[in-house]
Amino acid sequence: MSVPFGNRDVAEDEKKRLVRGVFDSVAHRYDLMNDLMSGGVHRFWKDAMVDWLNPRPGQRFVDVAGGTGDIAFRIARGVQKHGGAAGIVCCDINREMLGEGIRRGGEAPEIAIRWAGGDAEALPFKASSFDAYTIAFGIRNVTHIDRALREAYRVLAPGGRFLCLEFSRVETPGLDALYDAYSSSILPRLGRLVAGDSDSYRYLAESIRRFPAQKAFARLIGQAGFGQVRVRNLAGGIAALHSAWKT
Ligand code: SAM
């Protein structure tokens, strides 16, 4: 069976290898590129995600496709504001990305994060291990979205929270054409200039275009067993937050 990889279809088992290649290639410049590509806006979106999560001391968190730890660090700081600690695991399939996160963690020794290698479609955790599962700009990259969602459901304890931040479908008239032009022409050029890799950033634009829109993704979350699925658009739908609960 074939699956989408950017604007082409590839064999199922090839996609994982190709996605790994993308993030191997960009890991060393990943954080800088995020700031340049989004004009720093990704930081506000990630803050909005963790605000909605409202992390509390004593909870157990897993951030999947966590990359260099942007969400995990925010959760840790959110918990610290309430004067306590929490268990936070940052899990990613790519060791280069985790390596960058571990290096960043070394600069913030007050923050305790456990870094784990693992595939979102077959997580290395027991059922009901976490109170909250987060995934930011990650689920678009997995081969089978439905398997990743079922894994999220499995590793969450009953009453656990699912929260996903992902690029979505622009719902503001006028903004869609502008955004399309930006992502298909400026983004790959920026990728070539800064990370020396335009193909990976072309993949990024194309994978965004093929990812299900807000309502379709909400339906997939419901099909994985979750209830109370809610959506919040960010920047007119350039990105969206999907929240749900394991009942
Ligand atoms: N969550 C981080 C953030 O928001 O900055 C990183 C997002 S980055 C765009 C996507 C991440 O997904 C990469 O670190 C990549 O290695 C990871 N990834 C891709 N496929 C994965 C999979 N099947 N399982 C776990 N992680 C995966």
Short structural summary:
The chain is α/β, with parallel strands linked by helices and about 250 residues long. Helices cover about 45% and strands about 25% of the residues. The strands form 2 sheets. Strands 5-4-3-6-7-9-8 form a 7-stranded mixed β-sheet, with helices on both faces. Strands 1-2 form a two-stranded antiparallel sheet.
Task: Write out key terms for the chains shown.
9 helices; seven-stranded mixed β-sheet; Rossmann fold; two-stranded antiparallel sheet; alpha/beta; 9 strands; 247 residues; binds S-adenosylmethionine
Q: Could you characterize the architecture of this molecule?
A:
By secondary structure, this protein is of the alpha/beta class. The chain has one domain (2-169, 211-245): Rossmann fold (3-Layer(aba) Sandwich). The chain contains nine helices and nine strands. It has helices at residues 12-26, 30-38, 41-53, 70-81, 95-106, 145-155, 175-195, 198-210, 214-223, and strands at 2-5, 8-11, 60-64, 87-92, 114-117, 130-136, 156-167, 227-234, 239-245. A seven-stranded mixed beta sheet has the order 5-4-3-6-7-9-8, with helices on both faces. A two-stranded antiparallel sheet has the order 1-2. Helix 2 packs antiparallel against helix 7 and helix 3 packs across helix 4. It starts with a strand and ends with a strand. The structure holds S-adenosylmethionine. The site of S-adenosylmethionine (SAM) has 19 residues, from helix 1 and helix 4.
